[in-house]
UniProtKB/TrEMBL annotation:
This is SMP domain-containing protein. It comes from the Eukaryota. Residues 143-205 are annotated as: Disordered. Residues 157-173, 194-205 have a biased composition (Polar residues).
Length: 205
């Protein structure tokens, strides 16, 4: 791979495309137990770490993981149940690669956040602009633009400015301004701003 191509792939303003490869957790059949059991936490198994590595390589353009990156962070906890602290460490590893203050759509941090949420059996509504919420905002943006990548200055970009911060009036305002940029000045039902507001409301319920 040329130096120019690697340099291009490292630009923080270019979130990577969502990987299309199927990757999920096997759900236990409901009939095994007569009582409702709490879902087991997902582990950082070899398949999960491999998936993290593939997403890391999409960011760096390198043939393998880099020091202190998301794969390196995940390997420190290999075989252990995923926790919010481990997700945070993997996110820090991703930030070393991207230079961004928060996760990117389809990146290693977004992947482990989804697996962590699936392992708990329910989506965690934190009321914050975490990786899962920003990914949802990105999906809402894609539906409006038809583009595979977020628009510069759009709602995803505005949300990433407030990554890992509580959703508040200022961040909602910024996301709305980003949404108006791609809609011609209007907010859309079910759009990025509505997605962020929904997350905030659910966190309070």
């Amino acid at each position: 791979m040329s130096r120019a191509l690697i340099s291009k792939s490292l630009r923080p303003a270019q979130p990577i495309l969502e990987c299309r490869a199927a990757f999920g957790l096997r759900r236990a059949p409901a009939y095994i137990h007569t009582s409702v059991a709490r879902p087991a936490a997902a582990n950082l198994n070899p398949n999960t770490i491999s998936a993290i590595t593939e997403r890391e390589k999409l960011i760096t353009g390198e043939a393998g993981p880099v020091a202190d990156g998301p794969t390196a962070q995940a390997q420190k906890y290999a075989g252990q149940p995923l926790t919010s602290a481990i997700v945070a460490d993997i996110m820090k590893g991703e930030q070393i690669l991207t230079g961004l203050n928060g996760p990117i759509s389809g990146g290693p941090a977004a992947l482990v956040q989804r697996i962590f949420d699936a392992g708990t059996g329910t989506k965690h509504h934190s009321g914050m602009l975490d990786s899962a919420t920003i990914s949802s905002i990105t999906e809402a943006e894609k539906k409006l633009t038809g583009s595979a990548e977020p628009v510069k200055g759009g709602p995803t970009a505005q949300a990433q400015k407030h990554a890992n911060e509580p959703i508040n009036s200022q961040s909602l305002h910024d996301i709305t301004e980003g949404e108006k940029k791609i809609t011609g000045g209007q907010r859309v039902k079910g759009g990025p701003t509505a997605t962020a507001q929904s997350e905030l409301s659910r966190s309070r319920s």
